[in-house]
């Protein structure tokens, strides 16, 4: 009986992963978890505050985007890392905002259709931000 229950549980897990909602939920979970992991360097190495996490939810309960904002008031900078899902397909973005002027610049993006469920692009995106824009993030204000 125990083996049968285990097989049923595994089948249910597989069904959840292969349904559109299951895949969508997995993408969101992977995005949130991996963003926390790969972009932690912003707080540890570049003195940004802990990220402010928010999400947009439709009235029907569907989450349309996740967003992390890392602020550094000493440098007047904000890094916004977001991923937009259904019904839009903007996908992933890293934006840098100069808080003293309000100027916002998109530094990197990955369209939704170019993302995988595991969100593996996030590791390279974090390295791109760190190595390609590190000097700007360390600037003295």
What does this entry look like structurally?
The structure is a single chain. Helices cover 40% and strands 28% of the residues. The chain has 141 residues and is of the alpha+beta class. The chain has one domain (2-137). It has a five-stranded antiparallel β-sheet, covered by helices on one side. A hairpin with a 4-residue loop joins strand 4 and strand 5. The longest helix is centred in the N-terminal third of the chain and has 19 residues, at 20-38. The radius of gyration is 18 Å and the shape is globular. Mean pLDDT is 87; it is low at 11-17.
By secondary-structure content and strand pairing, the structural class works out as alpha+beta
Distance between the termini: 67 Å
Please count the beta strands (DSSP E, at least 2 residues each): 5
Shape: globular
The helicity comes to 40-55%
The number of distinct structural domains comes to: 1
Task: List unreliable stretches of 5+ residues.
Answer: 11-17
Rg over C-alpha atoms, rounded to the nearest angstrom: 18 Å
List its traits.
141 residues, alpha+beta, five-stranded antiparallel β-sheet, globular
Layout of helices and strands:
Layout: H1 2-18, H2 20-38, H3 41-44, E1 52-57, E2 63-72, E3 77-84, E4 91-98, E5 103-110, H4 121-137
Antiparallel strand pairs: 1-2, 2-3, 3-4, 4-5
Outline of the structure:
The radius of gyration is 18 Å and the shape is globular.
């Amino acid at each position: 009986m125990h083996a049968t229950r285990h097989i049923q549980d595994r089948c249910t897990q597989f069904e959840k992963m292969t349904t559109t909602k299951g895949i969508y939920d997995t993408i969101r979970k992977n995005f949130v978890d991996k963003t926390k992991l790969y972009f932690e360097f912003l707080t540890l190495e570049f003195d940004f505050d802990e990220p402010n996490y928010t999400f947009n939810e439709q009235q029907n309960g569907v989450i349309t985007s996740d967003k992390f904002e890392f602020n550094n008031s000493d440098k007047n900078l904000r890094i916004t890392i977001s991923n937009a899902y259904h019904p839009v397909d903007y996908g992933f973005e890293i934006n840098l905002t100069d808080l003293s002027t309000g100027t916002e610049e998109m530094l990197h993006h990955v369209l939704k259709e170019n993302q995988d469920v595991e969100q593996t692009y996030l590791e390279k995106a974090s390295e791109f931000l760190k190595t390609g824009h590190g000097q700007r993030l360390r600037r003295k204000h």
